[in-house]
Amino acid sequence: MPSKRRSLDVQTSMDTYTPPDTSSGSEDEGSVQGDSQGTPTSSQGSINMEHWISQAIHGSTTSTTSSSSTQSGGSGAAHRLADVMAQTHIENHSAPPDVTTYTSEHSIQVERPQGSTGSRTAPKYGNAELMETGDGVPVSSRVSAKIQQLVNTLKRPKRPPLREFFVDDFEELLEVQQPDPNQPKPEGAQMLAMRGEQLGVVTNWPPSLEAALQRWGTISPKAPCLTTMDTNGKPLYILTYGKLWTRSMKVAYSILHKLGTKQEPMVRPGDRVALVFPNNDPAAFMAAFYGCLLAEVVPVPIEVPLTRKDAGSQQIGFLLGSCGVTVALTSDACHKGLPKSPTGEIPQFKGWPKLLWFVTESKHLSKPPRDWFPHIKDANNDTAYIEYKTCKDGSVLGVTVTRTALLTHCQALTQACGYTEAETIVNVLDFKKDVGLWHGILTSVMNMMHVISIPYSLMKVNPLSWIQKVCQYKAKVACVKSRDMHWALVAHRDQRDINLSSLRMLIVADGANPWSISSCDAFLNVFQSKGLRQEVICPCASSPEALTVAIRRPTDDSNQPPGRGVLSMHGLTYGVIRVDSEEKLSVLTVQDVGLVMPGAIMCSVKPDGVPQLCRTDEIGELCVCAVATGTSYYGLSGMTKNTFEVFPMTSSGAPISEYPFIRTGLLGFVGPGGLVFVVGKMDGLMVVSGRRHNADDIVATALAVEPMKFVYRGRIAVFSVTVLHDERIVIVAEQRPDSTEEDSFQWMSRVLQAIDSIHQVGVYCLALVPANTLPKTPLGGIHLSETKQLFLEGSLHPCNVLMCPHTCVTNLPKPRQKQPEIGPASVMVGNLVSGKRIAQASGRDLGQIEDNDQARKFLFLSEVLQWRAQTTPDHVLYTLLNCRGAIANSLTCVQLHKRAEKIAVMLMERGHLQDGDHVALVYPPGIDLIAAFYGCLYAGCVPITVRPPHPQNIATTLPTVKMIVEVSRSACLMTTQLICKLLRSREAAAAVDVRTWPLILDTDDLPKKRPAQICKPCNPDTLAYLDFSVSTTGMLAGVKMSHAATSAFCRSIKLQCELYPSREVAICLDPYCGLGFVLWCLCSVYSGHQSILIPPSELETNPALWLLAVSQYKVRDTFCSYSVMELCTKGLGSQTESLKARGLDLSRVRTCVVVAEERPRIALTQSFSKLFKDLGLHPRAVSTSFGCRVNLAICLQGTSGPDPTTVYVDMRALRHDRVRLVERGSPHSLPLMESGKILPGVRIIIANPETKGPLGDSHLGEIWVHSAHNASGYFTIYGDESLQSDHFNSRLSFGDTQTIWARTGYLGFLRRTELTDANGERHDALYVVGALDEAMELRGMRYHPIDIETSVIRAHKSVTECAVFTWTNLLVVVVELDGSEQEALDLVPLVTNVVLEEHYLIVGVVVVVDIGVIPINSRGEKQRMHLRDGFLADQLDPIYVAYNM
After folding, report:
1. Contact indicator for 915, 927 with CB cutoff of 8 Å
2. Range 1345-1364 average pLDDT
3. Which residue, 22, 30, 36, is CA-closest to 71?
4. 3-state class of 4 per DSSP?
5. How far is Cα 239 from Cα 1394, in angstroms, rounded to an integer?
6. Mean pLDDT of the 667-682 span
7. How many angstroms separate the CA atoms of 1261 and 1257, rounded?
8. Is the pLDDT of residue 492 over 70?
9. CB-based contacts of 1422, cutoff 8 Å, min separation 6
10. pLDDT at 12 (0 to 100)
11. 445: burial class by Cβ within 10 Å (0-12, 13-18, 19+)?
């Protein structure tokens, strides 16, 4: 396979094709390829064909293996395919195609940003210029305001001009296909336009179709015009020409005079009227159609809408609306069958205009008065009728046919087919459009022929019915499709009485389809013995725009074999004709569709760009110049111009004719002797990596892989979807209910191999759906655009999916090569030279802040509490709320002090604990936890707060408790009476070894006495408490907090948030680790403010609890977690009005801080702000904080200082660890919100995690922090000092090598903003991007899981949550499905698409699981590593796992 593919954006006007045929289809439609393959063909046709082409191209034929749609009879085909599979290395001459010649000749547009010239400089990532002042000197004091303003303007980020954003930097990133030096190129001379024979007007031909009807209706009223059949094949009704004439007159009179009033008739001549008739009632349709012609109104025949949501019915409604249709003619039976509302009215169908339904049965019509007579004119250029056409994208267009074109077309068909009066013709086709209408309704009346109409419903019951009617009526002509011949073959069991010798012409309406030839050959093979002659089979080619394009003439000469062409598939993909030998699999055998129509001129032009004539050995779009064609798309002048007014040009640029040609939408060429060959449709064209493939050919190959056992023949759809700037092939088939999953997968993989070896193209996705679930066209074919729509929106509900992005996506960017690392010193010098700042920032200096902080004079929190108990004994420090919002408990300074004293006594006397012993505190969020904490400090013990086990989920939560108790080496465990019982219960014994618990103390009954003395630590650097937490990577890490760090931490927060005894703060956080614990237990004691405590678990029963408390207590500062914010956003989304009525008012809130250890979740904070804006919440109030294990709070918004800023960075630059600012809304932009203001006493620097060198502002690096409240190290049993020293005592390898930093393990960047801090300095914003441990190295680039997850969650409405991780270099995506299990497989292609498009990554495995499978910790963070372990141990119980090949 070519290793590099160029994505070419080829402009083609492609529409739909419905395999295996456009207008109709069926359960079993399609070719006969699998079971009764084409017989060896007569060779002369092929010979003269080869001779002609070799002459045309000077004998240079290049034969290449490529693709086929003919195989030899049944098993032979399978064997040959098997051979191919066995030796898939067949001479692959497919080195990459040469695109240079393409670009010049085909005017293929390669996507490039406009104006991109060769000398374009490489895009500059990194906006060094953003960050500095004029020459690196602060410009506050020395300049006038005017100059200052100028300097500020110059300092704004230099952003690429907008134009560049909306053209993807496609060429710098994606691999470009290199042209194939060996690709076949057309070498023939320029073709000549081909003229059909003269249209010989016979003297007695009528001047118009209505005149013909009048003639036959009056001179031979008894002559049969149409015989209709019931479902048993019995004649139901014979319509004579007399009856047709009188009935049409009645219809004409009623339309014009009986609708509306005399003064205001509803329908006037020239108006459009819809004809809605079922497929089993051609007689009523015929009378209505001719009635319209007589009344000079324009009939628009359409399908019967069966339900309000029919496939494609909405688009038909748009057509009716644009045609201004207000009246629909229909039959009685059809009118009764339409869906009705309870009042008996026909509802308005989706997208349809309001219609008056008018029944055209005789009993509903009034007889025209004697003196009324229709005005019968000669054919003129008024519109006769409008035929609808469905495009590739599902839109419906109306092709207008004038009265002259209608008559001329009938004359041309009469001449080409040699029709004579009173001939009998059997019609199996849809009589409302296309070949069925032209032969069975129009041309038949011009020649007074007798049509035997076979309805689709009869063919379903008896596929041989049409052959039986040919025998019974000794019909001369039959109009069929390949599928009718195929069905007849399948149903044929050697009936004796069949004789087809009366047939002089068997018109094959879809003879232009590449697989029709095998049906024709097989049919001839079987029925030759029944009198069928070879020369009777007449394939024709037609299109809605050009009507009949070409038809094979019936001859009496059986010696002249039909034309055959055996063409190399490989050549065809480049649009070049190369003759090949029929033994190969990779050839396409095509039959001619006869000669150009009488009175027409035909040529072929290049399918895209300027309509330039093709060479003789080149495939092009066939164009026709004739009277007998459509004239426009109704009401669409622009599209009409492109299709109906084409002027083909010679290579010199001169038009070949002054008359316009019409594009037929058929791809083909004119062969020797003027024979026309069609190799595909523009609608079915798929351009993959610059090579053209036809959907019909791919269907044929898929059908050749013994499909009968597994899938329904003719229920296969092939289309392309654009993913990552190239078309990707998708195959959807209906699976038989009895085939097992194993069978289906085998069949699917064989199809993939066959298509790869024959067409040399990869299939992106192959999906099998349950039988009868694909949207159908009215005649049972597959509605292609609707199928594609369902696929793209994820509502196809497949039962099997096989995706092969690895094989067919070849234009991914090259993997990033890591450059040999530049030394940190060079980086620093480089930054200095280019004027970039070294990325460092700090909060306010604690030493310089003068405030009357009384608590500062105490070194220890225990002393602060004692001091508060003496000076303000009755001041309330803590208020705990219950789930109803009432006060459950509160603590004043003195109450807390006294409880702490009792607990200290208990620890010393009952626990016999020594100074420095560790105590685990296992309490629910509340007051007891706080008292126990200070009790430990009073007793000189080291407390560890532990989340209690969940009573409903002991098995999974208790082991974590046990682990923390053991790892922290706790000598004693304090808890409440309730939890005490739980820890020793039978359920607990099943989960852990309860005998190994340390001493458990129950603090519900405390001793009454006070301790002899309160312990005072000897040194501020001794341990105050341990903080244990499970990181997102699943690591349990405990850090040591000294007394000094604890006091510094409280002081820093007090200053940042301006906390005083008079203030109230609402806290809705888990109090077990990090900033949550500090705010819950420590800050009130230090700063003296009142904390209103709201346990987050209470929000599950009452989601409004937190916000109601904030409103009720008129709180100005509140803290919460993402889980709480999400609960409020989801749970209160619809209740804002009722909350407003209850008096909820958030207008006093000035800071609402989300406490987190991750990148700010912008989407959540924004939706929260938006939702509660109406309740007075100021959007600027919502912000986030950032902390990690080494420093529990680095940033926190606080009260003074500028609002949090948001920047947009280029996600692609971020993968290379570069920060490039872009405009909001530009492609690949990622919004990042500042993580709050840096706390006082905190210094930050951004360092390279590998080299430990300082980085410039425009680089993504690890955040390092230096602060008095850094933790003093990990608390580990085994004392793994190497780990600890690196994280807590790191030095830069260059620059300031003295300072000791702690490494946070998070990647981020600093940016100096235009804003000023409270102290007048320029404000530095810190942006956190993600954890280093979580980042994934793929294709040499650094990806953050959250970015991929965000894309995936957007991909489908049923994806509620997503987590990604890597497994042996494969990207694994786990999605939670909120919906029925049928939707599970819909997600696979959508997830693969979105990750390819937005991240240039191929997803290796997609795992669809139930809601709640992705583990989430108490902070609302995903535990991706736990999930990975569960996936590898096969414990996820997934709904579906897809391994992309």
Report:
1. no
2. 94
3. 36
4. coil
5. 58
6. 92
7. 10
8. yes
9. 1032, 1345, 1349, 1361, 1363, 1414, 1415, 1416
10. 38
11. buried
Q: Residue type at 355?
A: L
Which residues contact residue 413 at a Cβ distance below 8 angstroms, ignoring those fewer than 6 apart?
A: 419, 438, 439, 443, 548, 551
| Rounded Cα–Cα distance for residues 483 and 27 (Å) | 10
**pLDDT: is 506 or 264 the higher one?**
506
| Location of structure tokens 């230099």 | 158
**CA–CA dist 1196, 1204 (Å, integer):** 10
> Which residues sit opposite 972 in a β-bridge?
919, 999
If one compares 1338 and 1285, the residue with the highest pLDDT of the two is: 1338
State the pLDDT at residue 558: 63
Please list, in sequence order, all residues whose beta carbon lies within 8 angstroms of the beta carbon of residue 223, skipping any fewer than 6 positions away.
Answer: 216, 240, 241, 422, 448, 450
Question: Is 629:645 a contact under the CB 8 Å cutoff?
Answer: no
* Strand stretches in 815-875, DSSP E: 840-842
The predicted-structure confidence for 635-647, as pLDDT tens digits, reads as follows 999 999 999 999 9
pLDDT at 125: 39
Nearest to 761 by CA among 751, 771, 770, 769: 751
Q: Would you say 367 and 591 are in contact if contact means Cβ atoms under 8 Å apart? A: no
Q: How far apart are CA 1025 and CA 936, in angstroms?
A: 9
User: What would the pLDDT profile of 24-64 be if each residue is shown by its tens digit?
Assistant: 333 444 433 334 344 333 334 444 444 554 444 443 333 33
Q: Is the pLDDT of residue 226 over 50?
A: yes
Instruction: Transcribe 872-888 into DSSP letters.
Output: STT-EEEEEE-TTSSEE
Which ranges of 1290-1344 would DSSP assign to H, the alpha helix? none
Residue 68: name the closest of 808, 760, 622, 606 by CA: 760
Tell me what pLDDT residue 117 has.
Answer: 38
Over residues 1305-1325, the pLDDT tens digits come to: 999 999 888 887 766 778 889
**389, amino acid identity:** K
Lowest average pLDDT, out of 60-74, 498-512, 661-675, goes to 60-74
Phi–psi pair at 1249, nearest 5 degrees = -65, -25
d(CA 396, CA 305): 15
Residue 77's nearest CA partner among 68, 87, 88 is 68
Task: Please tell me the distance from the alpha carbon of residue 567 to that of residue 579, in angstroms, as a whole number.
Answer: 5
Q: Are 1252 and 1200 within 8 A, CB to CB?
A: no
Residue 661 CA, distance from chain mean position: 39
Residue with structure tokens 């030493």?
A: 847
Nearest to 1238 by CA among 1318, 1298, 1150: 1318
- How many whole angstroms separate alpha carbon 243 and alpha carbon 729? 52
Which is nearest to 289 in space by CA: 450, 438, 428?
Answer: 438
Q: How far apart are CA 938 and CA 1072, in angstroms?
A: 20
For residue 304, give the nearest of 270, 271, 269, 339 by alpha carbon. 339
Residues 6+ apart with CB under 8 A from 1439: 1377, 1381, 1384, 1408, 1409, 1410
Placement of tokens 């191929």 in the chain: 1402
Residue length, the chain? 1445
The CA distance from 41 to 590, in Å, is: 11
What secondary structure does DSSP assign to 988-1055, as a single string? HHHHS-GGG--EEEETTS--SSPPSS----S-TTSEEEEEEEE-TTS-EEEEEEEHHHHHHHHHHHHH
| Cα distances (Å, whole numbers) of residue 779 to 20, 187, 242 | 12, 43, 31
Q: Span 303-325, mean pLDDT?
A: 80
Give the burial string for 1173-1208 (b: 16+ CB within 10 Å, else e). Answer: eebebbeebbbbbbbbbbbbbbbbbbeebbebebbb
The Cα angle at residue 300 between residues 295 and 303, in degrees rounded to 5: 135
Residue type, 745: F
- pLDDT cut 90: percent of the chain above it: 48
Residue pair 935/903 in contact (Cβ under 8 Å)? The answer is yes
